[in-house]
Amino acid sequence: MNETAEQTSNFLLQVKAVKLNNEHPFTWASGRKSPIYCDNRITLSYPEIRTFIRQRFVELINEHFGDVDVIAGVATGGIAQGALVAQELGKPFVYVRSEEKKHGLTNQIEGEIHSGQTVVVVEDLVSTGKSSLIAVHALREKGCNVKGMVAIFTYGLNVAAQNFAEANVELRTLTNYDTLIKVACEQQYVLEKDLESLRTWRLNPEKWSDDHMND
After folding, report:
1. Can you give the pLDDT at residue 132?
2. Taking the model in full, what pTM does it have?
């Protein structure tokens, strides 16, 4: 798995799916400042990387969750990745919105799924885990047995570990923040002097953001 994690991190940096910048922090949708910004959807534009991610997901699912009835993608980042995995496994695919539609059939889950079916959820990245776990709760409300979740990348935040533990959901990822920073340093994508700040952010993102709000 170390080899997979390092190769995945290498790919993410290569196509600039992940950007690191201590001096000019990024602003997340929440308004928080961060030295890292991740958009894994860009990997879909690169056939070699797209195929690598799909196959590693398939291996993760087979190894840790075994046979399942349905693959579910989290809207929107997990939809394409989940569909690719479902195709490779020969399984039905559904995707889950963050909330019910306000019109039409008012579906939150798009696609056919039934109570009692086993499901693995596919996500592109995990930050706090709250939005990802909304999909899990929706599937459970349908009576499904969610065996776990796979994602390309996790920031490895303590709050995410707590949220997944409380929800009793096993999370498996292709790579993680620590591996990404290690690879980025080896490639001189970031400098040694920036490592402490990057590690500090991961331990306390809120405080790091408050300290950099005027940057």
Report:
1. 94
2. 0.94
